[in-house]
TrEMBL record:
This is Ribonuclease. It holds the Pfam family Endonuclease_1. It comes from Streptomyces ambofaciens. Residues 1-35 form the signal peptide. Keywords: Hydrolase, Nuclease, Signal.
Length: 283
């Protein structure tokens, strides 16, 4: 199974290179993390996409390879905590690059609804798209300050009204559709994203749980198996997120997004996009 997944990751990364090579992310002035040495040198996406995720095992992930459980989680935390932090205002422009519609360079692809919408329609009004925190801000009360509130690895563009419908609900299966749902469902206490991004959502939530462990003035974020988490720094439902990670492996869009964030913005990676099997190895 591991070999199959490795081949799939390589195939996906190569597909991303073929479809999206030549698209370069603009340089961005960002606020460096106070306790890291993250470089601010940017690299064009076309160059980066020629390197498969497996190519990072001997460099970026070298201290994590071969580990499992808490040891793997701790190693990954150390690795991905070396990052450049963005301001919340800078997230607007970054999302126009990380989430660009591969079929229309003037648009972004909205996460839950799957709608392609003009990059210029960002804002807070009906018909606009705004910045969705996949790990809900209230689950840890971290707001929009530079850190978890501005981490591109869990920030995605979404329709204003759809974003409001999701609110701060935990993730789980079940519910009913709604306007512009794109196949996503919701009920009184949970939200189920459309099938094409279920794995994306799982890997974003679990990235946050590894990146923010409570040691850098931010809450210790952890997944659990509840859908009633409210304002505590927990997010569920873990058993369902693990299922989604298995059923919806990383595709070309998600692989490219991870690469752009690494090369041009935060200079860190979501390890579960590169190695989705690490979800099971930790949880």
């Amino acid at each position: 199974m591991l070999a199959i997944r490795t081949r799939r990751r390589k195939a996906v990364a190569l597909a991303a290179a073929a479809v999206l090579a030549g698209l370069a992310a603009p340089s961005l002035t960002a606020t460096p993390a106070t306790a890291t040495s993250a470089t601010t040198t940017t690299t064009t996406t076309s160059t980066a996409l020629t390197t498969t995720a497996a190519g990072y095992d001997e460099t970026y992930y070298k201290d994590a390879i071969g580990k499992t459980g808490d040891s793997l989680k701790s190693s990954l935390h150390t690795i991905i905590s070396d990052q450049t932090r963005l301001s919340y205002s800078a997230v607007w422009d970054a999302l126009k690059v990380t989430d660009q519609d591969p079929d229309n360079s003037g648009n972004v692809k909205l996460l839950y609804s799957g709608i392609s919408r003009s990059k210029t329609l960002n804002g807070g009004n009906s018909g606009n798209w705004n910045r969705e925190h996949v790990w809900a801000q209230s689950h840890g009360d971290f707001g929009t300050s530079a850190g978890p509130g501005t981490d591109l690895h869990h920030l995605r563009p979404e329709d204003v009204q759809v974003n409001s419908i999701r609110g701060n609900k935990d993730f789980d299966n079940g519910g009913s559709g709604f306007t512009n749902s794109g196949g996503s469902l919701t009920d009184s206490d949970s939200f189920e994203p459309r099938d094409a991004v279920k794995g994306d959502v799982a890997r974003m939530i679990l990235y946050m749980a590894v990146r923010y462990e409570g040691g850098d003035s931010w809450p210790d974020l952890e997944p659990n198996d509840a859908v009633t988490n409210g304002s505590v720094p927990l997010h569920g439902r873990l058993s369902v997120l693990k299922q989604w990670n298995d059923e919806d492996p990383p595709d070309a869009f998600e692989e490219r997004r991870n690469q752009v964030i690494h090369d041009s913005y935060q200079h860190n990676r979501n390890p579960f996009v590169d190695h989705p099997e690490w979800v099971e190895a930790i949880w």
